[in-house]
Design goal:
This protein is mostly helical and 173 residues long. The chain has 6 helices and 2 strands; from the N terminus they run H-E-H-H-H-E-H-H. It has one domain (5-129).
Length: 173
């Protein structure tokens, strides 16, 4: 799972819309945009922290002279130390953070649903938006299958092809 900056606003908007429509939360009509901003801030913080962990993993690799293909292993270890969810744990981590934000937001009048109900609604929205990214990832990997994953050449080409595909499909940030 990868969260792109260009997807933050649509995801946050859909989350608030679904939670209000389901009666899970109560928000005054003129405060809906503020609740969307609250959720956007959680999603933006996730992206920032993910980048920070990735950068730290790359620093460890260069400092210790390790192989670049170990970046994901080191990133996973660093994320676990911080209690940060990546990969399969990202959606669960994000839903916990968003629920916490909803309970502490001055813009939400009332939260009616229990945590598990909120989690399911939020997870559904995230999965709906993030499956598009998984499909993109698979398409990029097919196009660069001749390169060895984990090498700097693979990374550069992956980002180039991903950028081209997102631009073609109108998903760029």
């Amino acid at each position: 799972m990868r969260l792109y900056p260009g997807k933050i606003s649509p995801i946050a908007g859909d989350m608030v819309q679904q939670l209000v429509a389901n009666g899970d939360i109560e928000v005054l009509p003129d405060m809906v945009s503020e609740v969307v901003l609250d959720i956007e801030s959680v999603l933006r913080e996730y992206i920032r922290a993910d980048r920070e962990i990735t950068d730290r993993a790359r620093d460890v690799i260069s400092k210790d002279g390790l192989e670049f293909n170990q970046v994901n292993k080191i990133k996973t270890k660093l994320a676990e130390e911080r209690g940060f969810g990546i990969g399969d744990r990202a959606v669960e981590y994000l839903t916990r953070q968003i629920i916490e934000a909803l309970f502490h937001s001055r813009n939400v009048d009332e939260v009616f649903a229990e945590d598990h109900t909120l989690r399911k609604s939020l997870r559904d929205v995230l999965n709906r938006h993030l499956n598009v990214d998984d499909d993109l990832d698979q398409e990029v990997r097919k196009r660069i299958k001749n390169l060895q994953e984990g090498t700097s050449t693979w990374e550069v080409e992956y980002h180039k092809v991903m950028s081209d595909l997102k631009r073609l499909k109108g998903l760029d940030a």
